[in-house]
Amino acid sequence: MNNQITLLPGDGIGPEVVAEAQKVLNAVSEKFSVDFSYETGLAGGIAIDETGNPLPEETLGKCLNSRGVLLGAVGGPKWSDPTAKVRPEQGLLQLRKSLGVFANIRPVKVFSALAEASPLKADRVENVDIVFVRELTGGIYFGTPQGREDVAEGRSGFDTMRYNEMEIRRVLHVAFKLAQQRSKKVTSVDKANVLATMRVWREVATEVSQEYPDVEYEDILVDAMAMYLINRPGDFDVVVTGNMFGDILSDEASMITGSLGMLPSASLGEEGSVGLFEPIHGSAPDIAGQGIANPLATILSTAMMLRSSFGLNDAAVAVETAVDQVLADGYRSADIAKAGEDSVGTQQMGDLVVERILL
Ligand code: NAD
User: Fold this and answer.
1) Which residues contact 157 (CB under 8 A, 6 or more apart)?
2) What is the number of the ligand 1 atom nearest to the C-alpha of 285?
3) In whole angstroms, what is the distance from residue 233 CA to residue 224 CA?
4) Which residues line ligand 1 (CB under 6 A)?
5) CATH superfamily ID and name for 119-257
6) Which end of the chain has less neighbouring CB within 10 Å, N or C?
7) Distance CA 131, CA 105 (A)
8) Could you identify the atom of ligand 1 that is nearest to the CA of residue 72?
9) What is the full per-residue pLDDT of the chain (359 aa) written as tens digits?
């Protein structure tokens, strides 16, 4: 059995948080007697510096040969010139495309120990445990024609929103299957009152829902959903939507938790294909190299990898429980500590999680 994990530390705090995630994977190996083999690859700005390419062939080859890919983060001021021909983000898009990952899964869970970090009132966020499923490879971000032209009225830009039935159906199945393992409710978000693409989306979503009679189904317009996420976020279980709406709503929802450093993600393709796992935060250049980054989002991303790529549900639960316990025991990295509260550094946070896994 191929147990290879490819690590792509990337830029900024990426290497710091990925190192802690690897410590956690080593603890899982020990506790659950599984062997992982690791390959490390260059990706992002560091890959541009060393090879001129944000996703060198060698890196892509390693990723395609593995069960799961764990990415830290890519990018930073050094490579942020928007007119540059080669940019770190291109490597990430290329990687998603090459792996065929069409569903981006983002859990948004409020840890009870951190409820007060939410900008929303504590009683509203207490039970928040949502998983967003965002379609990742279609919709307006990829539709053609796309471009700009000069018209009589001045400059003009255009994009195309397009979804076909196959693309909608496969991401809806991911959402319903996830819901079956959770609270059995799927909310599909669209804009069927205005957009033809979204009327097809709703039709197909409704058809797929009939294949899952055990799962409650509802559809909600995207503008209403933007409001509901603030005034009743505890009502949702799995939320599935297209690429652009998912991009915006999942970022909105991430704010409910009050900490970017806590949120993991997975990007998945067809069953059995290589998954890509990464924290939702970026490379945090403002704190890179200081040893204070919060590694928990990356550690929780490894839990998602253990569950989806390796089928190691017990190990995933052990990692998630260890993170819960570290927080319940009062440990905080600087980003989640209250003013005046002591904080622990990146490595100590990793060690605290490892200790609890090995207990
Ligand atoms: P960011 O997520 O890197 O940082 C936003 C703020 O959150 C910063 O103040 C940062 O210090 C803090 N922060 C983020 N992660 C943290 C952590 N784990 N622990 C403690 N604090 C944390 O977003 P940004 O500043 O907008 O972007 C910085 C760079 O990252 C840019 O080059 C951007 O393009 C890139 N980026 C990459 C990805 C990715 O690799 N998937 C995602 C988003 C942004």
Assistant:
1) 147, 148
2) 28
3) 12
4) 13, 17, 73-76, 80, 260-261, 278, 281-287, 293-294, 297, 335
5) Isopropylmalate Dehydrogenase (3.40.718.10)
6) N
7) 7
8) 40
9) 689 999 999 999 999 999 999 999 999 999 999 999 999 999 999 999 999 999 999 999 999 999 999 999 999 999 999 888 999 999 998 999 899 999 999 999 988 888 888 899 988 898 899 999 999 999 999 999 999 999 999 999 999 999 999 999 999 999 999 999 999 999 999 999 999 999 999 999 999 999 999 999 999 999 999 999 999 999 999 999 999 999 999 999 989 988 889 999 999 999 889 999 999 999 999 999 999 999 999 999 999 999 999 999 999 999 999 999 999 999 999 999 988 999 999 999 999 999 999 99
Q: Indicate the top mutation candidate among 87, 260, 346 to test ligand 1's pocket, ranked by most ligand atoms within 8 A of CB.
A: 260
Residue of 254, 255, 281 to mutate, ligand 1, most atoms within 8 A of C-beta:
281
Nearest CA to ligand 1 atom 4: 284
Name the residue ranges covered by the structural domains of the chain: 1-109+262-359, 119-257
> Cα–chain-centroid distance for residue 148?
31
* Shared fold status for 1-109+262-359 and 119-257: yes
Residue 80 Cα: closest atom of ligand 1: 32
- CA–centroid distance, 283 to ligand 1, in Å, is 5
3 state DSSP class of 20? helix
Question: For domain 1-109+262-359, which CATH number applies: 3.40.50.300, 3.40.718.10, 2.120.10.30, 3.40.605.10?
Answer: 3.40.718.10
Under DSSP, the state recorded for 137 is S
- Is residue 184 left, alpha or beta, with left meaning phi > 0 and alpha meaning psi from -120 to 50? left
- The catalytic residues are 141, 191, 223, 247, 251
Token pair 């990018």 is at which residue?
A: 75
Q: Ligand 1 centre from 192 Cα, in Å?
A: 33
Residue of 278, 277, 207, 192 whose CA lies nearest to 242: 192
- Is-above-0.90 flag for pTM? yes
Nearest protein CA to atom 5 of ligand 1, as residue: 284
